[in-house]
Design goal:
This protein is mainly α and about 230 residues long. It has nine helices and no strands.
């Protein structure tokens, strides 16, 4: 993605991270969604020729999830999970083309999926312990959808590794959120910061990768004609 919008996105991310350390009550959670709202606009502008509206829709749904997760209410948390799930479906629709499985890619997918299963199992035991068993099925469904999106981004043939990196980092980010909101008895600031940082990085990688691939194909597959 071009340098100027990338720097603008970084500035918005830094503001969001700062408000995690020093909460701004008047913002009402919108500050968490501003980086992804901006990124959704970039995705709409830079990626549609190759991926249609799907990348932009995925980021926009992520922004809605950001706003929802900024609320401490459990009902808003569940709404955030739903919007993120829909966002992963949008990303899956965007990148489910020109896929190729190699041994290294399959191993990477299996290892990542195995860690996800371990985490979901751990959290499920925690949910039983705190008598919130009703959350086990939604969390499990979300994990399945996330794993499908991750696998698709890894298998997607692209001139850049940013898309695959985005899918993998998304798993890391969501692991932070699950641990912080569903496993620990009270949220940890360090986990919140690292969760947001990896989340914004994942979203950026997906959009930047899609933008790069779009320009690559518009230039007829000529890497020299693709600006960084």
């Amino acid at each position: 993605m071009p340098l100027t919008p990338s720097l603008c996105f970084l500035a918005l991310v830094l503001v969001s991270l700062w408000t995690t350390v020093v909460p701004v009550e008047a913002a009402g959670g919108i500050e968490k969604a501003l980086p992804t709202l901006f990124l959704a606009g970039c995705a709409w502008y830079y990626t549609r020729p190759r991926f249609g509206p799907w990348v932009a829709v995925g980021v926009l749904l992520g922004a809605m999830g950001d706003y929802s997760l900024a609320s401490a209410e459990r009902s808003w948390f569940q709404a955030g999970v739903v919007t993120f799930l829909l966002g992963h479906l949008a990303y899956s629709a965007a990148f489910a083309k020109e896929m190729k499985g190699t041994r290294a890619r399959v191993i990477l997918i299996l290892v990542t999926a195995g860690m996800m299963v371990a985490l979901v199992t751990l959290v499920s035991f925690r949910m039983v312990h705190v008598e919130e068993q009703a959350l086990i099925i939604p969390v499990s469904v979300y994990a399945v959808v996330l794993s499908i999106m991750m696998a698709i981004t890894v298998l997607h043939q692209s001139p850049t590794r940013l898309i695959a990196a985005g899918g993998l980092v998304f798993v890391i980010s969501d692991a932070h959120i699950v641990l912080n909101h569903m496993f620990l008895s009270s949220p940890c600031l360090a986990l919140a910061l690292s969760g947001y940082a990896t989340y914004y990085l994942a979203q950026y990688c997906l959009v930047a990768g899609a933008s790069y691939e779009t320009r690559y194909h518009q230039n007829g597959g000529d890497l020299d004609g693709v600006a960084s």
